[in-house]
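PT: before anyone asks, these are the final sequences, not the draft ones from last week. 522 residues across everything. Please model them as a single complex and drop the result in this thread when it's through.
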Amino acid sequence: MSDWAVRVHDVSKRFRLYHERNQTLKSAILRGKTSKHEDFWALNDISFDVLAGHTHGLIGPNGSGKSTLLKCLAKIYWPTSGTIEYRGRMASLLEVGSGFHLELSGRENIYLNGSILGMSKASIDARFDEIVEFSGVERFLDQPVKNYSSGMYVRLGFSIAIHVDPDILVVDEVLSVGDEEFQRRSFEKFRELKQHGKTIILVTHAMPVVRDLCDSASWLHQGELKHSGPTDSVVDAYLKSVKS
Amino acid sequence: MRYLSEIWRSRELLQNLTNREVRGKYRRTALGQLWSLANPIAAILIYTFIFSFIFRLPAQIGDPSGLNNYALWLVCGLLPWLFFNRVLTLGTDSLVANAGLIQKVYFPRIVLPLSLANATFFTWMLEMAVLVVALSLLGAFVLPWLPLVAVFMVIFGLFSVGLAMVFSIINVYFRDLSYLLTVVLQFWFYLTPILYPVELVETQSDKLGGLAGAPITLLDIYSLNPVEGFIEIFRNLLYDNRAPELSTVLIALGWTLVAFGAGAWMYARKERMLAELL
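LR: through. Structure below.
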């Protein structure tokens, strides 16, 4: 095996399903305990490596645990057991425009959102023009974001996120934002990142995208890792199971 | 320590989130930041009318400043309280209010209450600047005490945000807290010597003597309130123009350490679970 960029090792994630979620003081005091719950394992002993410079797809039906795994990879959830190691800086793109302040202008939001995503002011300054150019909202840069059309909002958010320039990028199904033209440019951007040797992990339901972009893939089913390896073999096995 | 270095690394984020609060708040208003002075001014007018004109509280003479002005005396205690009140109210809600962000992006969660406290601190600084001008115009010699005022503002800020941090985490588990807090803060306000001098409590306390035969007086219980010491310090510095008592300062420092320590400890322990708890 050559160099890995992300190593997922025996990751399990337990959620508690609350039957009586006592989120009020009254119920806590009356019952003398905070809650009744049952455990639900969303992920079970998942292990795989993503090689440096590879694009890795996470596939599986709804409820298979892809999003949970992605959130673990993005450091939003912490695995109940197991570890995830990174070689390089990781950034995640789970939603575009997180933390936008609607009353603030596009310009101010680029700095705000950029720093939430972990960019320094210097690097935002350096990439400011690129971000604006890619988003195509130059004319409205000093307008409050609340006046943006939903397309402009999403494009600006996506453009900031894609310019964070991490070594490892964790992406949810955000490729499907914007119009045809913007989607085409987004794909180009992903290819460009790939050419620059970035490692990308993405969740998607679109198998053509997986085949097109990914070098390797992992197929999750009910919290178990069914198959992980080269894209074609994983996707073929997955599609076969879905049809049968 | 690990936590302090993490806060340090996210200082740009902290600054940007602070800017978001400060700039976003008064957008599209004609008076902008001036609105932040509206509440204190209204409170000063009302309280001065009621307590100084109608109830005729004993005159508060600044020693050694010689000031005799109830409104100014009141404001020296009221401004710190209003800051404390806002930090606690906003800070307690800071995690729940930003649930969407917490569930989508990783960043040190502690910046949320900290940025709110910073933005509120900024407003407080404006208010204090106006107060210092007013005090100077009316004859107090405040300027030499300003460095100490600034130091205690920071200390009081740490105390307030520490408490807000603790509350913000508890509020994730028990959403009642933010509502309960508004009620508690009402009691807290009137149980702190802001509108009236602490001497009035002392008089009553002396009349009562030891409570239930024990050597504990009403004043002893009253003085457990950590905010009381801070108010005294700010009044000493601003209104009286003298150094606060060492014991008061030490107790205030102790409370600050406890509050901020507890807040940081809770974040270090609970931060990773916040996304799923919200």
